[in-house]
Amino acid sequence: DTEVTQTPKHLVMGMTNKKSLKCEQHMGHRAMYWYKQKAKKPPELMFVYSYEKLSINESVPSRFSPECPNSSLLNLHLHALQPEDSALYLCASSPLPNTGELFFGEGSRLTVL
Amino acid sequence: GENVEQHPSTLSVQEGDSAVIKCTYSDSASNYFPWYKQELGKRPQLIIDIRSNVGEKKDQRIAVTLNKTAKHFSLHITETQPEDSAVYFCAASISSGGSNYKLTFGKGTLLTVNP
User: Fold this and answer.
1) Is B108 on the interface with A (CB under 8 A)?
2) Which residues are registered as beta bridge partners of A24?
């Protein structure tokens, strides 16, 4: 299995809702990432988990809460989002020690009303 | 931190022509340079990469060149086809085997191949 799987593919939520994005990989990768991508822009790094521990938080607002329950799963919990948070959220994984390559999921397209 | 500049932002070519996209980076410690292709609504897909101990790498119609002294690298696509139309991102990183791994992307190039 060489895929990173993300669910849901599309999500529409109101500003008062609580929702979660999920990511799963079975490649044995021990680093997992959340990226945010706005239209016509490059992916922006949000969080990095290494060996299931948060190693990088790129000053992301607390309304985004990551969780790594085990080496295969990565969640992003969403609460009290703003319309400007609407974007494509990409999960990625890489082996550790890192070789540089990132394997991206298809993304979850989030719309905040 | 690393800064990656990418040019041009848009590129339009006729089918069969070549396309060249150029990137420069700022951190001389960077040693891994991937290129991603992203079609509309899809994930970024790695199409080719190069490491700092290599000057050029080819894969069929795609090639990447790296000039470490000048800190720039380029993507070359020959015999372009309409299905090459997409946004292309260059990126740079320091691949040291550590766990705090960050990939810095260029702003992207929208390539349009006209039939």
Assistant:
1) yes
2) A5, A73
Kindly give the pairing relationship between strand A18-25 and strand A73-79: antiparallel
pLDDT tens, position by position, B82-108: 999 999 999 999 877 677 788 999 999
Cβ distance A73 to A22 under 8 Å?
Answer: yes
Instruction: Give me the sign of the Cα torsion angle B3, B8, B14, B19.
Output: negative
Residue range A25-73, pLDDT digits in tens:
999 999 999 999 999 899 999 999 999 999 999 999 999 999 999 999 9
Are B43 and B106 in contact by the 8 Å Cβ rule? The answer is: no
Say how far apart CA A26 and CA A36 lie, in whole Å. 22
Question: C-alpha B91: how far from its chain's center?
Answer: 7
CB-CB contact of A77 with A18 (8 Å): yes
pLDDT one-digit tens code per residue, B32-77: 999 999 999 899 999 999 998 889 999 999 999 999 999 999 999 9
Strands (E), A26-106: 31-37, 44-50, 53-57, 64-70, 73-79, 87-94, 103-104
Residue of A50, A57, A98, A106 for testing the chain B interface, max B β-carbons within 10 Å? A98
38-67 of B, contacting A, C-beta below 8 A? 41-46, 49, 51
Could B95 and A98 be called an inter-chain contact, meaning their C-beta atoms sit closer than 8 Å? yes
